[in-house]
Specification:
Layout: H1 4-11, E1 16-19, E2 23-26, H2 33-43, E3 51-53, H3 64-77, E4 82-84, H4 92-95, H5 100-108, H6 112-121, E5 127-130, E6 134-137, H7 148-152, H8 165-171, E7 173-174, E8 180-182, E9 189-191, H9 193-202, E10 207-210, E11 219-222, E12 227-230, E13 244-249, E14 255-260
Parallel strand pairs: 1-5, 2-3, 3-4, 6-10, 7-9, 10-12
Antiparallel strand pairs: 2-13, 5-6, 8-9, 11-12, 13-14
């Protein structure tokens, strides 16, 4: 269960974490615990490998509690080898709809564990920069934020707002449009190639890595390879049939995408059958 030590470590970290390469960058996990273990088998164990997880640790999968607490335990054990940034599902409101709250109350008989975990969510960083050149965020860009320094000045230790700069970082998506557009998600924005190029140029960056959207091949490059979506939950929701991927950046920021499938059936378990929750329907 999360402790004061978790918060002490996380509160010392800035809104934008500075990370050294080499590092392995991971996308959404969504409570798929056995596939998280498969990820470590494919990409390497910590602390031999450094990791950046770009949020959405919980919801939709069967094992959100185990997934988040394992990542938190690894963070506490090797704080300089693991970076956890916040996704849109690291939210009290969202987790009451998409499964994490229900899982906690079912497994522990009360929402106490859910409350502990959601309190920790408020301490997670909002973004990371690798070697000053690769910007990593869960969702995407915001029309209210032209520079990384503006992200550093945000108050992050709050529930995810319904609108504004912090909301946009966790909810926005790239799209083949010009400029900015309204998001069909009802939060954040759609942004095209021109805001992407402007943000990279203004902040002297080469690449944006983000998560947040299912990529059937595990990752998806856009805008002349200036932005990549990394997705690390294979067979998402146990039905989508996608593969997953991680992005390995070497000491020169050379990119290698490692693609992997689900954990073998003989090493995974599934909770006892019960009527499906509405978020699987």
């Amino acid at each position: 269960m999360p402790s004061d030590l978790d918060r002490e470590i996380l509160i010392e970290e800035g809104n934008v974490q500075c990370i050294d390469a080499p590092v392995t960058v991971c996308g959404d996990i969504h409570g798929q615990f056995w596939d998280l273990l498969q990820l470590f088998e494919v990409a390497g164990q910590c602390p031999e490998r450094s990791y950046l997880f770009m949020g959405d640790f919980v919801d939709r999968g069967y094992f959100s509690v185990e997934t988040f607490l394992l990542l938190l335990a690894i963070k506490v054990r090797w704080p300089d080898r693991v970076c956890l940034i916040r996704g849109n599902h690291e939210s009290r409101q969202i987790t009451q709809v998409y499964g994490f709250y229900d899982e906690c109350t079912r497994k522990y008989g009360s929402p106490a564990v859910w409350r502990y975990c959601t309190d920790v969510f408020d301490y997670l960083s909002l973004a990371a920069i690798i070697d000053g050149r690769v910007f990593c965020v869960h969702g995407g860009l915001s029309p209210a934020l032209s520079g990384v320094d503006m992200i550093r000045s945000l108050e992050r230790r709050i529930e995810v707002p319904h609108e504004g700069a912090m909301c946009d970082l966790l909810w926005s998506d790239p799209d083949e449009i010009t400029g900015w557009g309204l998001s069909p998600r009802g939060a954040g924005f759609l942004f095209g190639a021109d805001p992407t190029k402007s943000f990279l140029r203004h902040n002297n960056l080469d690449l944006i890595a983000r998560a947040h959207q299912l990529a059937m091949e595990g990752y998806k490059m856009m805008f002349e390879r200036q932005i990549v979506t990394v997705w690390s939950a294979p067979n998402y929701c146990y039905r989508c049939g996608n593969v997953a991927a991680v992005l390995e950046l070497d000491e020169h920021l050379g990119q290698e995408y490692k693609v992997f499938g689900c954990a073998p059936m003989d090493v995974r378990s599934i909770p006892a059958k019960r009527p499906p929750a509405e978020y699987f329907l």
